[in-house]
Amino acid sequence: MPASKSDTVVLLERARAGDADAVNELLIRNRHRLRKMVGVRLDARLAARVDPSDVVQETLLEAHRQFPEYLRTLPVPIYPWLRGLALRKLIRVQREHLGAQKRSVRREETLVPLLSEDSVAILARRLFSKDSGPAGRVVRAEQQARVRESLTRLDSLDRELLIMHYMEQLSIGEIGSVLAIGESAVKMRHLRALRRLRALLEE
Predict the structure, then answer these.
(1) Claim: this prediction has a pTM higher than 0.85
(2) How far, in Å, CA of 105 to CA of 90, rounded?
(3) CA–CA distance, 191 with 198 (Å, rounded to integer)
C-alpha cells in the first residue's frame, strides 16, 4: 500500500534538504507498485527474456539521477512520476526485443504496452464477473482476444484509465496526476469508458 501523504511529504522535505537516506526511502518504498505495473503490462513474448524486477531496478537508478530536478519542480506526486519513468523504460525494452517482429504485431498496437494475456483475463474478471451475458464470460480463454481487441478500440485515455484503475489499482488522484485531469473528470471518464467497453464486448 502507498505510504500516507504526510509521511511522504516529510520524506520529500528531508530529501530537499539533502538527506540521501530520504531519497533512497522514497524510491525503495515504491518498488513493489512499480514491479506490479511492469508485470501487468509486460508482453508475454518477453516473459522468458525480461525480468520485471530488472526493469524496475533500472528505473530506480534513472530516478535517482533525475531526483534533484524532480525535487526542484515537483511536477506530480512521487509515484506517478516514478510510474512514468518505468513505463518509458518498459516501452524501450519491448521495442528492443520485439523490433524484429514489427511487421507481425497487430495493426492496432499502440505506443504504450497494453496488457499481458494473464492481465486481460484478470481485468475481465474484475470488470464483468457478475454479468450473465457475453461480458460475464470474457474470462474464458477463447474470448480473451475479444477483450484485447475491444480495449484497443477504446479512446487511448479511456483505455489507460481502466488499466490504471483495475489493474494497477491507482487512486483517483493518482490517475488524475498521470492523465493531467481533475478527479471529477477521472470519475466521469471512468463511467464512460466502462459503458463503451461493455458496448464493444456485446456487439
Answers:
(1) no
(2) 17
(3) 11
